[in-house]
Amino acid sequence: MRHLLICGAAGFTNLGDDAILWGMLSGLRDSESGAASPPAQRRYAGRELCVVGGPELPALLSEADAVPIGYDDRDELARAIEDADLVILGGGGMLYDIGYAAGLARFVGDPPDRQWLYELARIAAAARVAGKPVMCYAVGVGPLLTEAARRTAAFIADQCAAVTVRDEHSREALRACGVPAPRIHVAADPAVLVSPGPPEGAERWLRESGVSDAPRPWVAMNIRPWYRFGREREDADAEAMQALIRNAAQMVRGIRDQLGGTAVLLPFQRMYDDDLEVADSVLAAAGECGALIAHPPAAPSDLSAALARFDLSVGMRMHFLLLSLAAGVPFVALTYSEKSAEVARMAGLADRAHPVDDLDPEAVLHSCEAVLSSRAQLVIHLAEVRAQLVEAAEIPAALVRELLESGAPQRRRTSPPPAPSRPPAGLRVLMQTRPDFREKPGGDVVQLEELLPHLREAGVEAELTGDPSPDLSQWDLVHTINLDRPEDPYRHCLNALAQGKPIAVSPVHNDMTEFLEWGDPDYWDLPDPEEGVPRPKRAPLPHPVERRRRALQHLQRQAILDWAAICLPNSQTDADYLTRTFSLDPDKCVVVHHGIHSLFFEASPDAFVEKYGLRDFVLCVARVEAKKNQLSLVAAMRGTGIPLVIVGRANPEEYRELCRRYADDNVLFLDPLPQDELVSAFAAAKVHALVSWIELPGLVSMEAAAAGCNVVSTDRGSPREYLGEHAWYCDPRDVDSIREAVLAAHAAPRSDALRERIRQNYTWERAAQRTREGYQAAMARWEQRDSDSRAAASLAAMQRHVDWLAREVADREYEVRETLRRLRQAEEHVAHLENWGRQWEEQSRALEAELKRWQEEMKRITNRRLFRWSEAVARAGWSILRKMRIKP
């Protein structure tokens, strides 16, 4: 019997897994006929469909033309594999190992009990033994915590003729397992293909569950048990789960009190993870608040129709959020993993997502109010997102057809780069940067200023400005820079979108987590310089106000990258980070490596040697600040006898004074030098050391190498991509590592290898050429969009900005409340001190009176004793005189 065999996790009482299978069945049959219809009406290419799943699978497939097979029936499963034309791994379940111990024993003998990674590996191996092709159908991947799990995932991919995953995060997880990127096709979760069932069924469900009589807005909620996964201590697990239940109960009450609506808790799974148990606990904690628990319809199509009747969804499970998106219901995500956060990002609702580990019920309710206030626009936006996801979700079905017809899938890109639509010559580009770029120049400003003349030579009409909101009528494109300070490029993007202009962004940004945790010397061990070296210590968690500020900045960076037509990172390392962190489309990236000015290759040491009398010293050119880590460099060089010259503006002056404390007599601090003197300083130095917490890649390292220096660089960021194996690298957290690298570089002879690498690969002419190519791609993308889509994008950006402003207002209100709370605490402390002072004053007066009384008593006692002593002396004298017969 010719059939397709689908192996997944449907039928185990998880409505999300059931929806995946239903979407797969719909997608496979729709691709055959070219028309949407229920899964029950067609086979696929004349082949019967067999599905392997759980005990509830027969009921799920009762209306579908597919044969259910249980995992426990191993003989039937083996026959199904032997008779299959194609074995498809999908239909629920993920390649992950969280929640159970991974190991070879699991692979060999365990039954399919959450361990889909190993069950699917066994099926893939059996299919290959039987000579049957295997395919991964839009699977989710990760987390893969153990080496055994990563190797198993790679093994599954190796057995497959085609591998499709449901999102970028899954693709990166497979790439980390060693699966080549070209083999991985990014599709979308098949659950988005579930079409709503008849409206009569949804209306009947609403009546029977009591929702239709409840006050609106109706808010669908899903809270799942989570904390028992990945936790080492049961007590911490139980405490975290109870906190989640309390927070959810507060949200349920707030839906009634603040929104005037009704919370309807929808359990999405009963086996293994019992959502109903959690829902009961939430309602018990919430008390009388009008909330309901409603068992969702079992059929995915009826579930989709029921969800579409709600005004808002708030929940945790990924497929609860995804089905809400597909039904056109705006949602607020309670994110517990990357997959749920990914759905929020896809929907453009990442700024309305709240991590479960740091859940603030008031913030969630504020997000609910904001989403409801803009519901009409969001419904339109979600319809556009669903259309895009549906198109991507159809990719695996097309690959199935290719495998059946030719035995090999066609290679394709999910988002092909647009073809150039206009020559770059004559392009008018306005480069925008921060307003203080003249007063406070930095690497971002140098990059734009150096690119400017070379772009003009290439025919691009370009200007540089610090004006945040200029008139763009005479410009074709805006180029903004520096996501380390996202406030300025955020304003530039809003202005560009409002005036209908495409955006190119140079991010100049990478992961600052380590610096924020370890780089603040205020928390370091700072012994006396003669007794030890400074040692980094982890800073305490930032205040909630600071955490909120960082979260707002992250939202700004996400918006900038979403709005940009092209992204111009300065290294592949930076591009990979942006792709991981912000789900940036790799096809939107054009890597533009930094260049340097040719004058550094012609540097002469004479001017610097003549003025300062130094040669073959260690040089560090950078702002003197904690991020650049000169304190550790100074401590590392102490006692070596090698002169160290630090050139740069202090930021702040207190940090430079701290560096002076650890400096010996061989350290010279200089303010920023004119360019001719700086070039000469590079040539006079033997080593240039830049031991920052992160660099992208550190222009001064390249300039120093061009001038003939040996280079010591931090190993954080992208320096290795630029400098290769021709530099010495150090750990910025380890003073000993810095000392060893600097001494090794100083002892080594000068080499021209790095100098030639820089000369051949990193010039501003080449950087300008790559930037021009990026402009060209941005214009092509922009011109492919019609005026309506551009207007919609501008409107969506304005709405997103409104939501961001609402979030900022909420944060400012929180900051004000925190400030007032601190003031009240300070006032209470002052009052306590004043009361203590009054008590002390009263006690002092009492003590003073007591002391005076004792002084009077001592005086009285002393006078009495003196009289007695004088009387005794007189008597003794008379007695002596009498005995001597002396008459007075």
Features:
single chain, 888 residues, alpha/beta, eight-stranded parallel β-sheet, six-stranded parallel β-sheet, 31 helices, 50% helix, 12% strand, globular
Give the averaged pLDDT, no decimals: 86
Our Rg estimate from Cα atoms comes to: 36 Å
Strand proportion, as a percent range, falls in: 5-15%
Class from helix and strand fractions: alpha/beta
Shape: globular
Tally of DSSP β-strands: 25
Percent helix among the residues? Answer: 40-55%
Cα(first) to Cα(last) distance is 154 Å
Describe the protein in words:
This protein has 888 residues and is of the alpha/beta class. The chain is 50% helix and 12% strand. The strands form four sheets. Strands 1, 2, 3, 4, 5, 6, 7 and 8 form an eight-stranded parallel sheet that branches. It has a six-stranded parallel sheet with strand order 11-10-9-12-13-14, with helices on both faces. It is globular. The termini are far apart. The model is unreliable at 33-42, 229-233 and 410-425 (pLDDT under 50).
In short:
With 888 residues, the protein is an alpha/beta fold.
How does the SSE layout of this entry go?
Layout: E1 3-7, H1 15-33, E2 48-53, H2 57-60, E3 66-70, H3 74-83, E4 84-89, E5 94-95, H4 104-109, H5 116-129, E6 134-141, H6 147-159, E7 162-165, H7 168-176, E8 184-186, H8 199-209, E9 218-222, H9 234-257, E10 262-265, H10 275-286, E11 292-293, H11 300-307, E12 312-315, H12 318-326, E13 331-335, H13 338-346, E14 354-355, H14 361-373, H15 375-393, H16 395-406, E15 428-432, H17 443-457, E16 461-465, E17 477-481, H18 487-498, E18 503-506, H19 513-518, H20 544-563, E19 566-567, H21 572-582, H22 606-612, E20 618-621, H23 630-637, E21 644-647, H24 653-662, E22 667-670, H25 675-684, E23 687-690, H26 699-706, E24 710-714, H27 719-723, E25 728-730, H28 735-747, H29 753-761, H30 764-783, H31 787-883
Parallel strand pairs: 1-2, 1-4, 2-3, 4-6, 5-6, 6-7, 7-8, 9-10, 9-12, 10-11, 12-13, 13-14, 15-16, 15-17, 17-18, 18-19, 20-21, 20-23, 21-22, 23-24, 24-25
Helix pairs in contact: 1-12, 5-6, 8-11, 9-10, 9-14, 12-13, 14-31, 17-30, 18-20, 20-31, 22-25, 23-24, 23-28
